[in-house]
Structures are given as C-alpha cells and as structure tokens.
Automatic annotation (TrEMBL):
Organism from which the protein derives: Pistricoccus aurantiacus
Keyword field contains Nucleotide-binding: yes
Pathway: Purine metabolism; IMP biosynthesis via de novo pathway; 5-amino-1-(5-phospho-D-ribosyl)imidazole-4-carboxamide from 5-amino-1-(5-phospho-D-ribosyl)imidazole-4-carboxylate: step 1/2
All copies of domain SAICAR synthetase/ADE2 N-terminal, residue ranges: 7-231
Taxonomic placement: Bacteria, Pseudomonadati, Pseudomonadota, Gammaproteobacteria, Oceanospirillales
The keyword Nucleotide-binding belongs to this UniProt entry's keyword annotation: yes
CDD domains in the record: SAICAR_synt_PurC
Gene3D superfamilies: ATP-grasp fold, B domain, Phosphorylase Kinase, domain 1
Protein's GO biological process: 'de novo' IMP biosynthetic process; cobalamin biosynthetic process
GO terms under cellular component: cytosol
Family: Belongs to the SAICAR synthetase family.
Name listed for the protein in its UniProt record: Phosphoribosylaminoimidazole-succinocarboxamide synthase
SUPFAM superfamilies: SAICAR synthase-like
Top EC class of this enzyme: ligase
Enzyme Commission no: 6.3.2.6
Length: 237
C-alpha cells in the first residue's frame, strides 16, 4: 500500500490517502495542544507512544466484538485505517467526575458516577465542541436515531471492556470520548483511543496519567502515557 497526498492535518494527527480508495494512513505526530490550541508543544516520542497505545486498545476492542477502523501498524508513528464517513458527534462516557462536568455543574472532582453518564457533543472546533442532545443531532441531520442508538450501545460496550482492562493495571478509567463513522453502512469506531482523549488515574493515589498532565503543567506527560501502557501490556519497543 502506497502513501499518497495529505487529506487532513489535525492538532496531533495527519491523514493521508493511499492507493486503496477504502484505506487511509493515520500518522500520529509529536504535537500536543490544549485549550482549543492556545497551548501547544511538541513532545518527543508522543507520536510513537500514541500510535502503539491506540493499536493495542483497538485490538482489545476488536477481540471483544467492537468493530473499529483500525487495520494495522505500518510504522512507529503510522497505521492503516478504513476510510470512514465520519459522524460529527462525539460520544462521552464519564465514570468519575472531572474536567468540564465539574465546571458545568459544580461537582467535586473525583466523585464516583454510578451509573456512568453518557453525553453527546458536536465535533466542531470553531464552536468549541458544544454539548448537544439526541433531538438536536437528529433534527439538524448530524446522525439518525438508529445511528445514535448504535453509537450509544458501542460506547457503553467499550466502557465495559476498557474499565476492566485498565483496572487490571491499577488504573481508573475516569472518562473518554469516542468518534464513529460509516464503512459500507456499518458503524465503526474511528479516530483513536489514547491518553490524549481520555482521563486515566492511578487507582490508589489518583495520580493523573493522561493529557491533564499537559493541560495543568504537571510535566512527565509521555512518561505517564508509557506507564499506563506498561501496566496494561503495551509494548513500545
């Protein structure tokens, strides 16, 4: 498979066409950003770490019956993925209160959420990814009721699989976002799953092992990502 011209460059990843119309190459860069791009930095090894972390997680989800766009690694920083027609709605699960939820509702960070909450956000950087509901998503044509229902089922299934996986490594899966798309009329998990798009805390100390280390200037960002990977069985060699 040959890499062709760039299709899209996001904040931390680039997407390229290939000679297969149904496949793309996803490149993980060392770039890191927060607060809608107001804070930016290049962190050595980040592209490699997130690429391999994502590959491991996608493999575990596939084994559990969650269909994903991931096809395989092609280099330390690149993987091949199915070309999806992306649905512009992010699905967010929260198992523990943190981040935006605490700011919106005045809830203390660290509060256990039982049952976990499920939220929808419109993927739109210019609008800062506003929160929406199923009615808005349907009426404005972002997704059909059937698509939304399937995405919700898959998001909770991912929660069941990954909470157990991280718990085995002494890690709490605090919250995360997922993006989905259509491939030949099948809804598949797209984008990535890495510490960039979720919150992960040590189960005993509640030390943060995710992108909040970058947001809050705690340092040791990539070392924390690698620590999580090591605990759950990711190889970065």
């Amino acid at each position: 498979m040959k890499k062709r011209q760039e299709l899209y460059a996001g904040k931390a990843k680039s997407v390229y066409y290939t000679d297969d119309p149904d496949r793309l190459i996803l490149q993980f860069r060392d770039d890191t950003s927060a607060f809608d791009g107001r804070k930016k930095e290049a962190l050595s090894r980040k592209g490699m770490v997130n690429n391999k972390f994502n590959a491991f997680i996608m493999g575990k989800l596939e084994e559990a019956g969650v269909g994903t766009h991931f096809d395989g690694l092609v280099s330390d920083t690149e993987c091949v993925v199915k070309k999806l027609e992306m649905i512009p709605v992010e699905c967010v699960i929260r198992n523990i209160a943190a981040g935006g939820l605490c700011k919106r509702l005045g809830i203390e960070e660290g509060r256990e959420l039982d049952p976990p909450t499920f939220e929808l956000f419109l993927k739109n950087d210019e609008l800062h990814d506003p929160m929406i509901n199923e009615s808005l998503a349907e009426t404005l044509g972002f997704a059909t009721p059937e698509q939304l229902a399937r995405m919700k089922v898959l998001t909770y299934q991912v929660n069941d699989v990954l909470k157990a996986l991280f718990a085995a490594g002494g890690i709490l899966l605090v919250d995360y976002k997922l993006e989905f798309g259509l491939f030949k009329d099948e809804i598949l998990l797209g984008d990535e799953f890495s510490p960039d798009g979720c919150r992960l805390w040590d189960a005993k100390t509640r030390e943060k092992f995710d992108k909040d280390r970058f947001r809050q200037g705690l340092g040791g960002v990539i070392e924390a990502y690698e620590e999580v990977g090591r605990r759950i069985g990711v190889s970065f060699d």
